[in-house]
Amino acid sequence: MLSFYPLQKPPAFFAVRLFLVHSNFDPVLLLQPLQQLLADLLISVNYKDACRFFSDNRCLSYRFQPLDYCDETETHTSEAKHAPYIPRHGENLMNRNRELREIDERFRENAWDNVEMSSESRKIAEEKIKRDEQNIKTEPPAMSYAPWNDFYQKHEMSFFKDRKWIKNEFPELQKENQRILEIGCGTGSSLASLISKNEVFGIDCAPTAIDIIKKREGFKESNFSVQEITQDGPLKYREIDSALLIFVLSATPPATHLQTLRKINECLNPQGLLFFRDYAHMDMAQLRFKPEQIVEKNLYRRGDGTLAYFFTEEVLRHLAQESGFELLKCEVDRRLLINRKKKLEMQRCWIQATLKKK
Description:
There is one protein chain. The chain has 358 residues and is of the alpha/beta class. It folds into two domains: 2-62, no CATH class; 126-357, 3-Layer(aba) Sandwich (Rossmann fold). Helices cover 25% and strands 24% of the residues. It is built from eight helices and 15 strands. It has helices spanning 28-54, 119-133, 146-155, 166-169, 207-214, 257-267, 284-287, 313-322, and strands spanning 2-3, 6-9, 13-16, 19-20, 111-113, 179-183, 199-204, 224-226, 240-246, 268-279, 294-296, 299-301, 307-309, 325-339, 344-357. Strands 5-14-15-10-9-6-7-8 form an eight-stranded mixed beta sheet. The protein has a three-stranded antiparallel beta sheet with strand order 11-12-13, with no helix packed on it. A two-stranded antiparallel sheet has the order 1-4. Strand 9, helix 6 (257-267) and strand 10 form a beta-alpha-beta unit.
């Protein structure tokens, strides 16, 4: 399945980005005819610049992105049986004022904010999760970080986009000259927009990810280390003003969550802040897991061995209280994503919080 959407590139012409849903599809087979087709379309604009762009490997971005991996910056991808959600050029996916007033108007836009599930949909979701729970294993989940290292060896920096929305969602990060630590920094998608005005640090369980981030322009090599947050011992970096925990805690077993938050609390300065965003209970990704993929309540294992946990507000509030944090803000971001062409709806749910060290 192929999908195309326009990307504005200098000079003024439209390039086309190719997404291949199936990971075993060889894009090289399509390269030559695709280039010829697009060059014909662009010849009236600037053929020389178009050909220069097509000779750059970046004009083709082919990657397999299951929905259950994706955060709000990755919602334009989907599994093979569903057409992808395609944002309009320039759309701000973190805009919060798209109010759906009439359900019949839902296909007028690509996304709507603060949309609650219908009572019928909620009932179906609850029944599905209950059926999943009948398959819970009695033994605790085995924890291995090897799948994440394999993940970054395969995708490097091509999977997660830089999270340019992060300072809008967490305005406290607009303050400059902070010492900022990201736990589970990956290749730096969250820190990229913070590095110019702050001193940033990062830890990650995947050596490949740390190797990549150390080579990024502006990232200080000594400020990034391999460290597994679920293992005993304090975090390497201390005297931190702000910490980021973005789509990371869900990748670890629930039994380790309290210990992780306590370790983060210990590395913060007095009144230090922790910014949290992750998957919420009854997110569409949870509902698309197969029953046999459940490990324990609200915890699932992906096909590649990585874990995905779906938080409730009650669980997060309890963790904050027990780990020495004051919960300043906690909300569930419920977003209805629309594929207008195929008339498909995707109900995404993320939980977001700001915590302060007591």
